[in-house]
Amino acid sequence: MIKLFNLDRSERTVITILILSFLAGAALTLYKKAYSPTQMKIVRSEAAIKSTSLPIEKAKVNINVADESDLMALKGVGRTVARRIVEYREKNGLFLSADDLKKVRGIGPALFEKIKDNISVE
Questions:
Q1: Domain ranges in the chain?
Q2: Residue 90 CA, distance from chain mean position
Q3: For residue range 101-119, what is the model confidence (pLDDT) as tens digits?
Q4: DSSP string of 27-80?
Q5: What is the CATH number assigned to the segment(s) 46-120?
Q6: Band of residue 56 on the pLDDT scale cut at 50, 70, 90
Q7: What φ, ψ does residue 96 adopt, rounded to 5°?
Q8: Does the model's pTM come out above 0.85?
Q9: With left for phi above 0 and alpha for psi between -120 and 50, is residue 21 left, alpha or beta?
Q10: CA atoms within 13 A on the CB side of 16
């Protein structure tokens, strides 16, 4: 057998395990980026929105996929609160119900009451 860089069998085994671990970590990172819920944004065409019973200006904002600008369309939600919603979702995962939005700093009972009819968690 050819000796690679004068390494014995146990040293080659350790190097092989390290290389495979690195490749597995890189693959996992790429997978997470490709299938991250924040990367998958549902885009509705104007025709699809018009086909719903809601007028365009009354379409609900899906808080699980909306970006900051979409969230800022909600009455009373500014840039800071919108950013906090996105950051909370990235850190804790998708919202399971609209009530989970109350866990975001800056969204109290009054603001939640204002926006609850305009949000969804589809």
A1: 1-35, 46-120
A2: 5
A3: 999 999 999 999 999 999 9
A4: HHHHHHHHT-TTT------HHHHHHSSS-GGGPPEETTT--HHHHTTSTT--HH
A5: 1.10.150.320
A6: very low
A7: -85, -30
A8: no
A9: alpha
A10: 8
pLDDT tens digit sequence for 61-91: 999 999 999 999 999 999 999 999 999 999 9
The residue type at 30 = L
Using CA atoms, how far residue 100 sits from 39, 40, 42, 85, 121, in Å, is 21, 20, 20, 11, 10
Q: How far apart are CA 47 and CA 11, in angstroms?
A: 63
- pLDDT given at position 29: 81
For residue 80 the two structure tokens come to 């800071």
Q: Tokens 């609160």 — which residue?
A: 81
